[in-house]
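Blinded run. Sample ID left blank on purpose so nobody reads anything into the name before looking at the predicted structure. Input follows.
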Amino acid sequence: MDPAVVLVLCLSSLLLLFLWRQSPGRGKLPPGPTPLPIIGNILQVDVKNIGKSLTNFSKVYGPVFTVYFGMKPAVVLHGYEAVKEALIDHGEEFSGRGHFPVAERINKGLGIIFSNGDRWKEIRRFTLMTLRNFGMGKRRIEECVQEEARCLVEELRKTKASPCDPLFILSFAPCNVICSIIFRNRFDYVDQTLLNMMEKFDENHRIMSSPWLQVCNNFPALIDYLPGSHNKLFKNFAYVKSYVLEKIKEHQESLDMNNPQDFIDYFLIKMEQEKQNPQSKFTIENLLATVIDVFGAGIETTSTTLRYGLLILLKHPEVTAKVQEEIDRVVGRHRSPCMQDRSHMPYTDATVHEIQRYIDLVPTNLPHAVTCDVKFRNYLIPKGTTVLTSLTSALHDDREFPNPERFDPGHFLDESGNFKKSDYFMPFSIGKRMCVGEGLARMELFLFLTTILQNFTLKSLADPKDIDITPIASGLAHVPPSYQLCFIPV
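Blinded prediction complete.
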């Protein structure tokens, strides 16, 4: 190529880059790696592990910096102080949901997880109120979880101590708790319809954490024109939507306005109360999206944590032995564990917390967005800008958790062996967008794990030192490797 042509192209590219960087509406964004036109910083980001890339950037640019995913900037907050300052101290301004094209294609801005503005506020408020009506955080829902834990034990006994993959068995337990709240009934562990649903959710979880989905989220035009796993994702969600819509129709036919039985009934009654309001957020479309949000989030996060937790306990039998000793001493063998036991079981409580801290399930959180122009640490972040908050940077802070890459329940114990809380523990996020089901999830994790360890010895098929607990995907979430184990009755 003629050197003059090359020079002109280079100068044109530099001019385009300069104009792009100086374009109006960018505000005074924090510094960050220099983006290329159109593709931004994508060549500098490892799409297999975005969280690690953001940690590396923070070592150069500090706790607040800007990264371009394609043409759109995202402000990244790294470190407990920056995350807390934004999500707690400036909670309202940082309470928007950031750009997430794949989810937007599925949910269309409806529901509770990916909605914004008044729609999000009203649906979230209603969901929290309804979950509390069903006893979230109270004895009523605890009894439901305990009963499901007993059903889980009976299902595990059926394996007869033979090697098994715990994936779907562990998914059914939290699924049935959520189903009792949403649909008023639970399902048998061999119910094929529900097994199909579990398979769809698990496949979607893996796809959402794949490198390809990170690319699709950065370049949404690919969604419409290229084949790929995103099409399988859409197909799976269509299956789930069809199932939930059928359940909603059944509820419409059997609804008793004076005697609501579950979440769908409460929503339908709210719809009837607001039918004269043309601006009402309570519509069938929003009900469908909200149920899927609560259903999916309530199943996948808890079941993945349980599955990852058992794998870690296989890797660390000395921890498992200490937990089981505490269970024997405090609970015994003749009654079910309950939440009151937790205050007398500091080592077990610390182990459950350490599992959540260690696996760092959603490393970069779901994307936030600022709801107005925000001045933050001498930078001006324009309204609508996506904000990524690194939960990893808090959960793996080496000042709060010495040797954070090592699994150690001692991270949550004081010198006397008592349980020690930490503000850095934020697996459910913090602030106005934190998980609405946090209380239920904490209860399930404690009761399911303690009930399993009360009734079974965990036997690995491999030597503990050979067990690999490295996640097989690190996109939206950390996905544990598949494994088998034996549940030996005690």
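Unblinding after everyone has recorded impressions. Confidence is low (pLDDT under 50) at residues 4-9, 18-25.
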